Amino acid sequence: MEFNSIGKPVRIRIRVGGMEHSSLDTLKKDVEHFDVFDVFHLIKNKSLFRWLTQIGEEEVLQNLSAINIQNYDNPSTEETEKLCKCFGINDWKAQIEQLVAKHEKNGEKDALIRALKMGAQYPNYAYKLGKLYYNEHSYADAIPHFKTAADNQYEDSKFLAAFCYYKTERYRDAISYYDQIVSRTGGTDSFSGEALYCYAKAIEQVSPNDPRVKEYQKKSAERGYKLADADTEPADADTEPNVNTSGRSPRELYESGCQWYRSQNYKKALFYFEKAIPYSDSLKFAGNCSYKLGQYKEALVYYNRYIRDHGQNFTHDELRQYKYCLTHSWGEN
To answer: With helix as H, strand as E and coil as C, how does the chain read?
Structure first.
């Protein structure tokens, strides 16, 4: 402990969420700035224990010591929940939501991954975490998180889990997930050309003579996915899909949009996202597609509608696109 010139102990202050605290009471009340990462760091370097000892909070000290934290940099969901309860914060999930939103807005990828891992038992966090790994082509790391999301029928997680299994050559697992989609939707109408291609190739690896191989390869080509061994020439990737979407649920339309979006066929993706509105993030992805197509006025309309309904819940790149539309949409003819 430090001493000043006349021998009195210097009162320790801790900083959490950018705010300084000299008492446990002020820390508990400042829920808005309570940052679990900061607290875990203070535990790691022993500063929090010194502070609690000085202010005489023995009960909190004992509760923290009982958590038995395994990894301070990547705490588990259970460890985070117990930590928050030590400071009177029972809605610990709200704290994770706050961290996720902050790190997404600031484009802080490593911190975002840590925050998502703390809530990885929940499908929405598992899905976001899987997407981060997926976008980095870390398919093996993405699989367990897409499985968690898929078990809860979350978004297009079954398609993503199947694709990751395919990319890691776990073909039977890929087929299992694709089969589940077919069983649930009654066919392959919700499949993009890319998904059908992966489905066909996975089946081919397990059962080369299965008639579905050629059937799905042909359908894949018809839906604009170029195949070297396709039976037909691929359709024009810029034409709108000539399909009947009546009877298909918003979830199925959204999943189709996501598949075309990953294939970078933004015109076809936009077609499905428009049909799926207001389901999930359809508005935001419709804005993304319009931006990719250079239609900034339309993109701005979708983004503003999304903000009205969901708030400015954008990734770093999406926020950049939105700001670009704000300054460039009025110059369009």
So the answer is: CCECCCCCECCCCEEECCEEECCHHHHHHCHHHCCHHHHHHHHHCCHHHHHHHHCCCHHHHHHHHCCCCCCCCCCCHHHHHHHHHHCCCCCHHHHHHHHHHHHHHHCCHHHHHHHHHHCCCCHHHHHHHHHHHHHCCCHHHHHHHHHHHHHCCCCCHHHHHHHHHHHCCCHHHHHHHHHHHHHHHCCCCCCCHHHHHHHHHHHHHHCCCCCHHHHHHHHHHHCCCCCCCCCCCCCCCCCCCCCCCCCCCHHHHHHHHHHHHHCCCHHHHHHHHHHHCCCCCHHHHHHHHHHHCCCHHHHHHHHHHHHHHHCCCCCHHHHHHHHHHHHHHHHCC
